[in-house]
Protein backbone atom coordinates (compact mmCIF):
# COMPACT_ATOMS: atom_id res chain seq x y z
CA UNK A 1 0.00 0.00 0.00
CA UNK A 2 1.53 3.35 -0.98
CA UNK A 3 1.89 5.92 1.76
CA UNK A 4 -1.01 8.32 1.95
CA UNK A 5 -0.44 12.07 1.82
CA UNK A 6 -0.37 13.42 5.38
CA UNK A 7 -0.51 17.06 6.38
CA UNK A 8 0.83 17.49 9.92
CA UNK A 9 0.48 20.89 11.54
CA UNK A 10 1.76 21.70 15.01
CA UNK A 11 -0.25 24.71 16.25
CA UNK A 12 1.02 24.27 19.81
CA UNK A 13 4.05 26.44 20.46
CA UNK A 14 5.52 24.33 23.28
CA UNK A 15 5.02 20.89 21.72
CA UNK A 16 7.90 19.29 19.88
CA UNK A 17 6.33 16.85 17.42
CA UNK A 18 8.72 15.14 14.97
CA UNK A 19 6.74 14.97 11.73
CA UNK A 20 8.54 11.94 10.29
CA UNK A 21 7.83 9.91 13.44
CA UNK A 22 4.18 10.99 13.42
CA UNK A 23 3.87 10.06 9.74
CA UNK A 24 5.33 6.63 10.60
CA UNK A 25 2.52 6.08 13.13
CA UNK A 26 -0.08 6.71 10.42
CA UNK A 27 1.81 4.58 7.89
CA UNK A 28 1.97 1.63 10.31
CA UNK A 29 -1.71 1.92 11.13
CA UNK A 30 -2.51 2.09 7.41
CA UNK A 31 -0.34 -0.99 6.74
CA UNK A 32 -2.38 -2.93 9.30
CA UNK A 33 -5.76 -1.49 8.28
CA UNK A 34 -7.30 -4.95 7.86
CA UNK A 35 -7.02 -5.44 11.63
CA UNK A 36 -9.05 -2.26 12.22
CA UNK A 37 -12.28 -2.42 10.18
CA UNK A 38 -10.34 -1.76 6.99
CA UNK A 39 -8.72 1.35 8.43
CA UNK A 40 -8.96 5.02 7.71
CA UNK A 41 -10.42 5.80 4.26
CA UNK A 42 -8.04 6.53 1.40
CA UNK A 43 -6.97 10.07 0.69
CA UNK A 44 -5.07 12.84 2.38
CA UNK A 45 -5.12 12.89 6.16
CA UNK A 46 -4.72 16.09 8.14
CA UNK A 47 -3.40 15.93 11.69
CA UNK A 48 -3.29 19.07 13.85
CA UNK A 49 -1.81 19.44 17.34
CA UNK A 50 -3.59 22.20 19.27
CA UNK A 51 -3.96 23.73 22.73
CA UNK A 52 -6.90 23.13 25.06
CA UNK A 53 -8.14 26.63 24.26
CA UNK A 54 -8.20 25.90 20.52
CA UNK A 55 -9.81 22.46 20.84
CA UNK A 56 -12.48 23.96 23.13
CA UNK A 57 -13.21 26.53 20.39
CA UNK A 58 -13.45 23.79 17.75
CA UNK A 59 -15.64 21.74 20.10
CA UNK A 60 -17.95 24.73 20.60
CA UNK A 61 -18.08 25.65 16.91
CA UNK A 62 -18.83 22.18 15.58
CA UNK A 63 -20.44 20.30 18.48
CA UNK A 64 -21.99 23.06 20.56
CA UNK A 65 -19.86 22.08 23.57
CA UNK A 66 -17.38 24.74 24.75
CA UNK A 67 -15.24 22.37 26.84
CA UNK A 68 -11.78 21.09 26.00
CA UNK A 69 -11.53 17.49 24.89
CA UNK A 70 -8.74 15.14 23.84
CA UNK A 71 -9.48 14.50 20.15
CA UNK A 72 -11.93 15.77 17.56
CA UNK A 73 -12.15 13.96 14.25
CA UNK A 74 -13.74 15.21 11.06
CA UNK A 75 -14.63 12.82 8.27
CA UNK A 76 -13.26 13.72 4.88
CA UNK A 77 -14.72 13.83 1.41
CA UNK A 78 -13.88 10.83 -0.76
CA UNK A 79 -14.76 12.79 -3.91
CA UNK A 80 -12.05 15.28 -2.97
CA UNK A 81 -9.59 12.50 -1.94
CA UNK A 82 -9.67 13.65 1.69
CA UNK A 83 -9.69 10.98 4.39
CA UNK A 84 -10.35 13.45 7.18
CA UNK A 85 -8.81 15.60 9.86
CA UNK A 86 -7.75 14.71 13.39
CA UNK A 87 -7.38 17.54 15.91
CA UNK A 88 -5.45 16.53 19.03
CA UNK A 89 -5.05 18.51 22.24
CA UNK A 90 -1.45 18.30 23.44
CA UNK A 91 -2.48 20.07 26.66
CA UNK A 92 -5.06 17.42 27.52
CA UNK A 93 -2.54 14.64 26.80
CA UNK A 94 0.09 16.34 28.95
CA UNK A 95 -2.26 16.95 31.87
CA UNK A 96 -3.77 13.46 31.73
CA UNK A 97 -0.35 11.83 31.55
CA UNK A 98 0.90 13.87 34.50
CA UNK A 99 -2.20 13.20 36.63
CA UNK A 100 -2.19 9.45 35.89
CA UNK A 101 1.59 8.99 35.91
CA UNK A 102 1.68 7.94 32.28
CA UNK A 103 4.21 8.64 29.58
CA UNK A 104 3.28 11.82 27.70
CA UNK A 105 4.48 10.58 24.29
CA UNK A 106 2.45 7.39 24.65
CA UNK A 107 -0.65 9.33 25.71
CA UNK A 108 -0.40 11.73 22.77
CA UNK A 109 0.15 8.82 20.38
CA UNK A 110 -2.98 7.16 21.80
CA UNK A 111 -4.94 10.29 20.84
CA UNK A 112 -3.68 10.03 17.25
CA UNK A 113 -4.69 6.35 17.22
CA UNK A 114 -8.11 7.27 18.64
CA UNK A 115 -8.73 9.79 15.84
CA UNK A 116 -7.54 7.36 13.16
CA UNK A 117 -9.88 4.69 14.55
CA UNK A 118 -12.81 7.12 14.42
CA UNK A 119 -12.07 7.62 10.72
CA UNK A 120 -11.92 3.82 10.36
CA UNK A 121 -15.49 3.64 11.62
CA UNK A 122 -15.07 3.02 15.34
CA UNK A 123 -17.35 4.85 17.75
CA UNK A 124 -17.19 5.34 21.49
CA UNK A 125 -20.56 6.85 22.35
CA UNK A 126 -22.29 3.63 23.43
CA UNK A 127 -20.82 1.20 26.00
CA UNK A 128 -20.49 -1.81 23.66
CA UNK A 129 -18.97 0.29 20.89
CA UNK A 130 -16.67 1.99 23.38
CA UNK A 131 -15.37 -1.41 24.56
CA UNK A 132 -14.71 -2.36 20.94
CA UNK A 133 -12.83 0.90 20.36
CA UNK A 134 -10.76 0.50 23.53
CA UNK A 135 -9.77 -3.01 22.40
CA UNK A 136 -8.74 -1.63 19.00
CA UNK A 137 -6.74 1.12 20.72
CA UNK A 138 -4.89 -1.49 22.77
CA UNK A 139 -4.10 -3.55 19.65
CA UNK A 140 -2.91 -0.47 17.76
CA UNK A 141 -0.74 0.76 20.63
CA UNK A 142 0.78 -2.72 21.04
CA UNK A 143 1.57 -2.76 17.32
CA UNK A 144 3.21 0.69 17.51
CA UNK A 145 5.13 -0.20 20.68
CA UNK A 146 6.44 -3.43 19.16
CA UNK A 147 7.63 -1.45 16.13
CA UNK A 148 9.24 1.13 18.46
CA UNK A 149 7.15 3.74 16.67
CA UNK A 150 5.95 5.92 19.56
CA UNK A 151 7.14 9.40 18.51
CA UNK A 152 9.46 11.18 20.96
CA UNK A 153 7.04 14.02 21.68
CA UNK A 154 8.29 16.64 24.10
CA UNK A 155 6.26 19.23 25.90
CA UNK A 156 7.89 22.29 27.39
CA UNK A 157 6.19 24.91 29.52
| Overall mean confidence score, pLDDT | 95
Classified in CATH, the superfamily is: Metalloproteases ("zincins"), catalytic domain
Counted up, domains total 1
CATH architecture: 3-Layer(aba) Sandwich
Walk me through what this model shows.
The chain is of the alpha/beta class and 157 residues long. Helices cover 45% and strands 18% of the residues. The protein contains five helices and six strands; from the N terminus they run ββαβαββαααβ. Strands 1-3-5-4 form a four-stranded mixed β-sheet. The protein has a two-stranded antiparallel ribbon with strand order 2-6. Strand 4 and strand 5 (82-89) form a beta hairpin. Helix 3 crosses helix 4 and helix 4 crosses helix 5. The termini are far apart.
Structural features:
two-stranded antiparallel sheet, 18% strand, single chain, 157 residues, four-stranded mixed sheet, Collagenase (Catalytic Domain)
In short:
The protein is of the alpha/beta class. It has five helices and six strands, in the order ββαβαββαααβ.
How is this fold's topology laid out?
Blueprint: E1 6-10, E2 15-16, H1 19-31, E3 44-50, H2 52-63, E4 71-75, E5 82-89, H3 90-99, H4 104-119, H5 127-146, E6 154-155
Helix pairs in contact: 1-4, 3-4, 4-5
Amino acid sequence: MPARPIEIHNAHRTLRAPKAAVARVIALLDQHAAKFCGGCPPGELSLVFVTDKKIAQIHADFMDDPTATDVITFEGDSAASLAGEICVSADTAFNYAREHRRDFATELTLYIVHGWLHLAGYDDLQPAKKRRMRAAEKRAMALLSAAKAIPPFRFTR
